Amino acid sequence: MTTEAAARRMPGAPCWVSLLAHSLSATQEFYGALFGWEFRPGPQHFGPYARAFLDGLEVAGVGELAADRNLPVAWTTYLASDDADATAEQIRCCGGTVGVGPLDADDAGRMAIGSDPQGAIFGIWQGKSMPGTAVSGEPGTPVWNELVTQETESVVPFYEHVFGFEPEAVVSADFDYLTLHIKGKPVAGIHGVGNALPRDRGPHWMTYFAVSDTDAAARRVTALGGRVLRPARDSAHGRLATVADSEGAVFTITQQH
């Protein structure tokens, strides 16, 4: 499931992940201890924001919610765009919603926050330089992004038309899953989970972070004040666990083969 850094430059591909939390300092402490991230100040247009680095390379962003904004604490997957304004218009034309932007993020690029017709929230990033995450595949880096929704059939046309994804079904009698390709490269997935979709979250994009040892990382999450939502389990792509940080933001950790 590793997404190469080069693939992240392609329009449509996931290129960045960002978290909005209530306490920036507590969130930095949690992820610094879990993944070894170091933090530097980022664009402050929308409130306190920091960029996370691993071995000097940028891997993610963390922002602080304004006290009066009643938004869920969640990781947001950003999809690369050559033209954020044109992509926003396509989102609207194809039945989605644009809730924020498009607007400039200092001099780094242009961004927007949208949602698909089923309500799953994602970001759009038009970078003036190489967009987003500079390294992938190493422990502590995002390695996969996956839309978790009720069923794939109703939502895949939206992502095909807006982002140019080429869907490829994973053939299984009891597994509704599509891999999304751009120029032949797998860049993301859509997982239809039916009635197993969490009622408190609805359709959502899930970020997968690499770890060197899933079981040890899951124990570390708990020790740091987070929770294990789905215990460590083996899959075709490695050993996975679904966890939540100390404020409830959900993500998946994966120890790859």
From TrEMBL:
PANTHER family: CONSERVED PROTEIN, GLYOXALASE-RELATED
InterPro entries attached to this UniProt entry: Anthracycline_SecMetBiosynth, Glyas_Bleomycin-R_OHBP_Dase, Glyas_Fos-R_dOase_dom, VOC_core
Source taxon at top rank: Bacteria
Pfam entry (one): Glyoxalase
PROSITE patterns: VOC (PS51819)
Protein name per its UniProtKB record: VOC domain-containing protein
Domain VOC: 13-127, 141-256
